[in-house]
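Methods — Computational structure assignment.
A single polypeptide chain was analysed. Its primary sequence is given first, followed by the predicted tertiary structure written as structure tokens.
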Amino acid sequence: MKNIMNSYCDVCFSWKYDKPPVTITKFSQTGFESETEEENNTESFKLCSEDQIELKYLGESQESFHCILYLNCQKPELARINGFCIISESRTLEICNDTDGYLVTVHGKLLGNVSSDQLHTQFYECRCSFEDSFSNISVKFLSLGKRTFFKLHSLVICLSQPSDVPLGLPRGPFSMSKLKKDIDKMGESVSDKAKDFLTTLEQYEQNKLKTLSGLMAAHQDNEQPQNQQGLSAIMSSILGPSAAMSLLNASNGHDGVNSGKEMDIYDMLQAVCSNVVTMRATDNNKNASVSPDSGAASFTGVLSSDTEEVDHVKDQSELLEIVDEKISQVRTELQASILETKQEMAEKIDATKNELNQKLDLILKLLGNSQGLVGDS
């Protein structure tokens, strides 16, 4: 579970560290619920005081004298950050975000003195939970004065799956829910036209997401019949139309609920080989049932049986070569079709993003004009 969470969220520091951050990093999907849990964390902190990393300032080449922790979710549609708990020597933390800028300042709680290398170190526990989840945040460690190094004991990151964005659909460059909250806080200073325009933009964004969902669903539905037709053509060319139809019908009846899904290539090969083995067994039984009248006839029967066996082996090898060739051809056609569909989807998504960006610029412009009019009045 920890490795999976690490693939969802990257942890990086602007200062140099003596141990990998993963040694003190944990991920949670339940959040911080009660003070009892907080007391348990404090007790485990006292027992495991040697498990910590030391961060050092490298010099003037860094962009800021303060150490900054960067948390970034690689796949925001799967996991986003909605809180964290940091135990370090820094009492004050400043939280920012690339999209919204400054978010909040967190003041930690003193946990007490912990002996480390014959020195008494003061550690603070800083907890923060967000109403909205974020794909990335930066945490600046303040209140360290002019110190060029400090210790970090543990880092717990709360991740949650976003509920407002369907899986597989891109999130826009701004948060509609946060924009609505900001406008509500402005109160009467926002004009009615701006509020109406915000409602229109919200409906527009929802319609775009529904359109993308429909396109993706239609694309998935269109892929299945094509694959089924391709496999049917392969089996028809090898076994003949009647045998192919009987095998396909048997497969669909066996799958039950999954009858609408494409037939697996392995199942098709297994069915073909089974049919070949059955035909071969039938021919051998016919040859064995013949009663020769003399030794010469018996010898002739043995020769004919060996010849037929060799012919069956040749037929089987040729059959496998034909199957391999057909499979390679179908795989190439499917890859080309999938690549073309992906390109079309990427173009449509880019066009949608551009339209949303234009609408956002217009909203910000209208809000700026409305605030200017209120200030003049």
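Note: Residues 34-47, 166-171, 254-262 have pLDDT under 50 and may be disordered.
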